Amino acid sequence: MKFGVIVFPGSNCDQDCFHVVKNVVKQPVEYIWHKNTGLDNFDCVVIPGGFSYGDYLRCGAIARFSPIMESVIKFAKAGGLVIGICNGFQVLLEAGLLPGAMLRNKNLHFICKFVELKVEATDTPFSSKYKKGEIVRIPNAHNEGNYYIDDKGLAELKKNNQIVFRYVSNPNGAVDDIAGIVNQKRNVLGMMPHPERCSEAELTSTDGRPIFESIVGWLKQHGRT
Amino acid sequence: MVERNIYCALGLNDQEYQKIEQIMGREPSSTELAMFSVEWSEHCGYPRSRSLLGLFPKEGKYQAMIGEDSGGIFYADTAIVFKMESHNHPSQVEPKQGAATGVGGIIRDIFTAGAKPIASLDSLRFGPLTEPYNRFLLKGVVDGIAFYGNCLGVPTVGGEVYFDESYSGNCLVNAMSIGICPKDQLARARAFGVGNSIMYVGSSTGRDGIGGCSVLASHEFGEGEEKRPTVQIGDPFTEKCLIEATLEMLATGHVVGIKDMGAAGLTCSSAEMAHAGESGMEIDLDKVPLREEGMEAYEIMMSESQERMLVCVKKGKEEEISDIFKKWDLHGVVIGQVTDDKNIRVKYQGKVVADIQTEALAKAPLYQMPFQEPANLKVMNTLDLKTIPIPADSNQVLLSLLSSPTIASKEWVYEQYDHMVQTNTTVLPGSDASVLRIKGKEWGLAATSDCNSRYCLLDPYRGAQIAVAEAARNLVCSGADPAAVTDCLNFGNPEKPDRYWYFKNCVMGIVDACKAFNIPVVSGNVSFYNESPKGAINPTPTIGMIGILPDVAKRCTQYFKDDGDVIILLGETKEELGGSEYLKVIHGKVAGQAPELDLLKEKAVQKAVYEAIQQGLLNSAHDCSEGGLAVALAECCVSNRDKAIGSNINSSFVIRNSSLRKDALLFGESQSRIIISCSKDKTAKVEALAKANQVPCQKIGQVGGESLKIEGLIDLPLNKLNDAWRGALKQYV
What we know:
The complex is a heterodimer. By secondary structure, chain A is an alpha/beta fold.
């Protein structure tokens, strides 16, 4: 089992994700430079938070055209597990691997704080270690986390049970309190809150750890599809 | 001779110009004149402050390291590098970019020392938020810090925000950054080894920030002046890449020395690196990557374009270094080499445009400034408490103080900063000091910044001592041992004797307090000329301090935890209202004497609390500062964002202190006091520790309930306290 953490020049949560995979859930993990291609040796790809290429334009809009994203798209279409956190979620939206778009937070400020999430779906490779309906505390840290999708798209998400996390108290204006979604095939997760920031007892909450443990459990059981 | 209006526009005076002619033995070229003007400015050369700064203690209980651009301490196998620096004038002119580039500059000082930046703090001061321009400044500065710091991935974990009329017209933005690296990987800012290459790395050079340090930062603000073009523009994405590329470059072992092109840009970095390495340097400006066409040599030498560094690289390794920067899409070009004379020689378009001894540039003139006690000091120090009526309703006073912007919760500020990235922040902002774990180590770090400038206005020597004592107290309350200081000395025009008197006495206060705590001052910065037509700012010697937690698992927070815990007050409460927030907010007065400070008593209180935390006896510790005991208790009740909890302060405490005016008991700011809480079974041990350290110790009440009650004086439900304290800042912004 091998994890890969993608590194754009402006990624800044890459080392945090790497640390949790390597030292908390104790799995092999490598960094993948954005100018590289090819993900054949990996079982799960993490697109971490940060500011990919500075994000002075729309977040993730340039990252989507990087060499590695072509490989990520192929990898995801072949069923590989992809998790995009914060800026990673934004990149996945731009790349068309997940539906919808991100707007600026309703209060037009960056917001960094712990938020409560309700776990809405546990039948995904990323959330099986949670209980459905469970309330967990995971921190947000973003300027553009106000998830938008049109009514038709939202109906689709609901119909397919693609909403994995909802905010208990909506901090940023996201449609239907959405904090995290999967694609229809359920192998790609995008979420705004940062589970890597709360996977160790030293960091106030360990509610993020089950996400990494779910992935490990799923890969152990299913191997790579 | 160069015309007077030219050198005056560069910020030089007549004597300085004559000295330059004398050094050169001829009329200086325009480039040379420009180089002298920035190097000799107060911001770079410290001509008016250097003699006093030499008094700071350079050694303490931890081994200190004082480098060219920053300093730090060694702990175990690790170097901890940190520094605070001002970006006041640019922020007053253009708050977002001014603050952003302040953050960028201080972080560059950390990673050019070879250390990975792990945290930032920001100490901010503004005029009252009732004035629209001050609200604009607060919003802009916070936005700038968030814009820059969040992108870099360096958490902004703490700091302070104060409001006072004296900062209307000249806000203060003091940015501090901390980094760590293995001891043997520290880098120095020097160039030596004849034939070694001088490389320019990072972003390109434009016309931004020309004269930022000399024309902008080394003069007062006048009426209706336009100084916006002297402010630099920040690009945090480039800086993020520069951090990564620089640390990668330093790991190759091919670097002789490295320096940030901050204030005074290429001039300062080239001259000071050569001087520190006792070498000469020749650089060719035709090789400098430029952002715009037609730049003059003096513009290239003075530009303060951000995100650039100068590096001395071992001969033959240039390509390897340049490849690293290529990987990060940054410039990495050879622009010169180390020479065997001791001059800095600058060529442009085939001609030598400057040729100066580095010594002359790097050693700015030294001025002995006249000083005199301000004429109005005695009047300010006079306070007859009989003329201050005691308010009938203490509840209302407490609510007013909690909603005073200086005391109110700063959540609106720090929630805009990413304070968790790098996943080391184990005590989040909102407690006395933030605490960081260090991955792979048992120990941790705590950091804080402090200064009550009102005390310094009333008594600069004692006020500065209190700033040091309070910073140490905040660290101790978090479970840390105070280790070392960086300071940012913000004052008015040093050419005015009363301003310089404040500066001198504040420096002496810091010197004596640091000696008492046995901690060194390892780095810092002086910012003079903080004056507008409205007058000078309060003297503000901001103290940044770091502390070591030998075992980070033993960290402590300020808020009450469990029902039934016993609340203990350590230290002595006196009838002191001078300089208090209460006197200012409720009675509209800034008067009296600053609170007394006995450094021996202060150390004793801190020692008792530090030991109690190390022994695992305490559930909380919080120091009494602005707003006194009542405000500190309210903060203990409501500052935990997840769980507010009440407390009951008993009548025997109130009766025991009935000789004091009740406003002094509740809101006086007597120093060296800490409120702690512990479970009942540990009370005896805590009391014994206090006794052993000869610290006054009173059991004053119990944690629990839905309100804060101080028998017969205060009775307020938690939600009212919370609304006043948490809601205040948001009302203005």
